[in-house]
Request: fold
Amino acid sequence: MKQFLLPVSMLLMAPVFVVSAGAAEIEPAQLDFFEKKIRPVLAKNCYMCHSAEAKTRMGGLSLDTKQGMRNGGQRGHAVVPGDVDAGVLMAALRHEGKLKMPPMGKLPAGVIEDFASWIRMGAPDPREVDISRTQSTIDVEKGRGYWAFQAPEKAGFPAVRGVAWPRGAIDHFILAKIEEKGLRPVSDASREALIRRASYDLTGLPPTPAEIAAFVADDDERAFHKVVDRLLASERFGERWGRHWLDVARYAETIGRTRNLPFPVAWKYRDYVIDAFNADKPYDEFVREQIAGDLLPYRNRSERNEQQIATGFLALGAHDLNEPDRKLFPMDVADEMINVTTRSMLALSVGCARCHDHKFDPIPTKDYYSMAGIFRSSELRDGLRLRPRFNSGYFRIQKMVTLDGVPDYSGEEAAELRTKRERLWQELLVAEEARDRAKTRKLARELGDMPVPENLAMGVVEAEQAVDCQVNVGGDPHMLGDETKRGFVQVLFPKDRALPQIGENESGRLQLAAWLVDRENPMTARVMVNRVWSHLFGRGIVKTVDNFGKIGSPPTHPELLDYLAVRFMEQGWSVKNLIREIVLSRTYRLSTDFDAANFEIEPDNTLLWRANRRRLEVEALRDSLLLISGEMSAERPAASPVHDFSRNQLINTGNKQVERWEVEETYRSVYVPVIRNQVNRFFETFDFPEPSETHGARDVTTVATQALFLMNSDFVQAHAQTAAERLIAGEKSDAERVRRAFRQVLSREPTEAEVEKSLAFIASTAEALRSEEQPRRRQSRVKAEENVEDWLFAAVTALLRRQPTASEMTDAMDYMSEQQPDAEKNVRDVKRFFVNNEGNLRRRQIGEFVELLLGRPATPRDFDEIAAFLEDARRQARRRGAPMVRGPQEAWARLYHALFSSAEFRYRG
Amino acid sequence: MIHSDFSRRNFLKSATAGFGYTAFAHLAAQEALRAKTFQNPLLPKQPHFEPKVKRVIFLFMQGAPTQHETFDYNLELEKHAGQKAEMNLSIGKQGGKILPPVYKFDRCGESGLPISEVFPHLQQHADDLCLLNGMHTDTPAHPQASIFTHTGNITFVRPSMGSWIVYGLGTENQDLPGFVTMNPPPVGGAALYGSAFLPATFQGTRLNIDPGEEPIGNIRNARMSLEAQRRQIDFVQDLNRGLLEKNEVDNQVEGVIQSYELAFKMQKAVPNVMDISQEPEHVRALYGIDDKVTRDFGAQCLLARRMAEAGVRFIELGHRGWDQHNKLRERLKTNATATDKPIAALMTDLKQRGLMQDTLIVWGGEFGRSTFEQNNGDGRRHNNRGYTMWMAGGGVKGGIRHGRCDATGAAVENKVHLHDLHATMLHLLGLDHKQLTYRYAGRDFRLTDVHGRVIREALV
Reply:
């Protein structure tokens, strides 16, 4: 982010930028001395490694600006005006110490003496670029006039002509706009369509045929109200709406970037979010807990722990553990926290002000660094540390937060595990102290392979010392500008409004949390009601849900947005009440019917004259299939598979355990682990958001790879099979079976024509299955499962008679690659490692392998194990190649398969 | 321009067959409206100005290949051989004795361009190569630099250059992905071909090139014959058209209908383009597919030509293992031999087919190597401050060297930053790197961020 830095020469030509004392005070003779004797030497010998232009600042030192020279780098001040011997520069030039500069050879004595003279005269330096750059041109007061920065106010309901249409306030706002444009709302949705819409919107699942039937038959005028209450009370609600928040919170279970290590207990934050939505935790409390949960009062331990887990929100960021610049890394961490906080809760991109004043919104760089101070004064506890020395492991339990009153280990082995961990830790410290590389590495690996203590969570706590941030000029932490005080974005509150005061020893997160949910904060409530609205209508009142700034879209219904925001706060920030009110409106109940006249005037339907057809998100798609096939588990998994990964395991090339999870496990999709850089292909294909940044609105693409997935994946076909099996057992008549399948998948009765076509399809498919179609071997599956990692894992498991650890796997792979160079690519070559071309075991090779893994010579039993394993693998390969189930069940499976592929299923009404 | 033959008009024909002329007239009247709102984002788009090339083939040599015994004949190395040199990098200071090239260079072609003896086949294309000897990039760490090479950014997850290009230009064959990558290295992971904030439509498709494996996930149906599948799709499309009939205008439904037809065709097109057994024996021999040493990369190069021919916009090939800290002599030779003949064959083949003039080939790694030695004179260290990449193809000056490094290995003359290379690639495709923007999170993003300068000196 080293942008918008002007070359030095340009700034010199434009003295108007130079505002502070400096150039003007330099005597002409001194300036002349600098220009003739000093600047050319610096330019020729130093800028190559120590300037903005070179893009490198070795040792963190810039020599192309006055401030860079004075601030110095990692070794301290380069120059102290007036004191020749104080700075690092002279010592380096004189080759006095270890540091000798320039690297290509000592400068002539005369030149070195010039530098001494120059420092003696006070190191006069006209190159003042940076300070001028931090002079803000933003008029914050004027910026307050923007609509989003004014507190929301409830306006009266607008007058409408169709007085009979509205059911409540929302409908007045919507109808007024519709009428204004000369449009008319279309008819209401059918009951089937309505319950389908509400079920998906509130729980992410289709209604069951029984639920539909009950609703259609219920003539109570509160019938829909009852449905909505049932859905809101369902545990499935939190799984649906929690996932919406997880998109915003860039939730993931690995750190991402270049050293993609697991976050073993990120799932605790995920579960916290789901529980919060199910319990209808007031949104202001939800915000407070995520920003400053560790600082809030609590009634008991479990509340304390919950609040601490909530701060996982700030700790889940994607960071580069290989970042070599140790000044930059903490600024990147603070930046990530600023971004996620401001984009998710304020829909503002404050992060843009890191390098320069915000280009579009009235957010000066100083505001950014005020917030940066808050996060720099907080300590990230994500369990991972920056590039450690001697491979001593990235994972540290000391870098996590400890929950109160929870034992570290439970069960029979608790004491043993505790002792082992403590022993390994002490040994590691000793080995590190002794700088014993090999031993350190080994111990770190062993520690990382141990089970994660149960009393840990990710989060943030207060740093040991609270600090204020200096402006990083151009986003460069080596170029420091003005000091800022910890604080907030100024523009959101009137100038004279008293704001929470940050004490000297506090980070300010507690005050930030209070400021975010202050009733007069113009953004927080608006942003959240807009998010809720967008999830219910497919588009926000402000379409750019993560950006309410100038470059975002203006609200289509500003008064409605304000009405909802104020009401949200008045009703105690209850998300469920907000949803209930919206869902019970007449607007929500409109059909998707086409209307030519309306379409002519407003084809985009931003004014909501009809309901928008909505694409099923990947979670809703997958969960629907699980529900319809009868396989869905209503349970929450204990933890996440990532919990059991070795903490040494880098996740860059895919992880079979995770890939299998979304296909073979039947938990709801919100529990499928989210791995950065490696979002599973199924999810990625259907626009699952990139989990490193806030995404309040997902892409909606319709691409051929999605079609391929629906046409050909084992997942879809397998669930179609299971659904068919149950269908045949449950219904006796073919026509009834068709009807039931339609009800299950599309929540409606098929037309008579559709029944006939379906029956004809079943008949022709069954006929074809009998005659023309040959059973095909399921090639794809066999190949997909015959990958190197799986194969080797299974082989080593057989040898060890237990599952290998990650380090054992690495050792095994390394050894194998040495012996069989292509083994990393090809299962065939892995197999060849074990058996020769004649099909006989390679006894010598296996013997060495066993010794490597088990640390003892191979026994006859080891050879038996391997032989049995190979035989078993051959059998399994045959079994997987077995032909599919044939006959009528297959034909019914294909009907389900077709319905799962239909546009009506993928784009619900 | 190759269009899918499943056009809107064909679709209308089949859609109207069932419900008579009135409906047809009505639907036809809606077509204008529909055209307003429905657009396939992958259809070819107008570039900003007249392009020199239509497609890019990027040969990514992961591991940071040495320039000193490949494409950068630097006399300074001989001159200062054995002297001590030092270089400051963000990972710390490095130094050692300057090691002259361990392989010799030959003057090649009419231009007399010096190319190392380890590339005897590429030597024959010397007059096409534009050697960028003054490249520099921001970091000497493999994963970061690999990501930087592809996305122009280390700090954030950003779209890969192939995604930017397909976003800007669409693609010419709707039956195939517009951006494909073969054998991407594990360092950097999916970020190397990800679309980040650009819609997922623009992300690179990773083609599995292992023989006998499916090239794209779910490209085949293991249970159903094509006839059975067609029967099923017909049934689905019938349902879909019923819905469209009811809704009259619905982009999403229309999008779904199209996507199944395309997917159905892709099932043939992708395996078809991937099937190099269709190539005559002499072509396979040209690429070295008959030789174990060149087989793997030869197959990739041949696939690249087939895809270029078929209208794929951005094609990336990968070859790993160029990180010669030790065994420089042996391993460089191995790498060069594995890739030399295939790359030369690709160029020959493209020329013969008249495709070279509108193709841009870019060769290079994520950074380069030091002038000084490591591991007893048989290795070189990392160096991001000076390295070499080369371009060839339409709009590029052939047979020239652009840029120079000094004895420490730092680029000192005609320096080309990676952002400049990105800007130049876009420029050759007819895209202005400053205009190719995407609005996200409150600002307009570019592949080159706020940097980048087109290397006009290297262009025709």
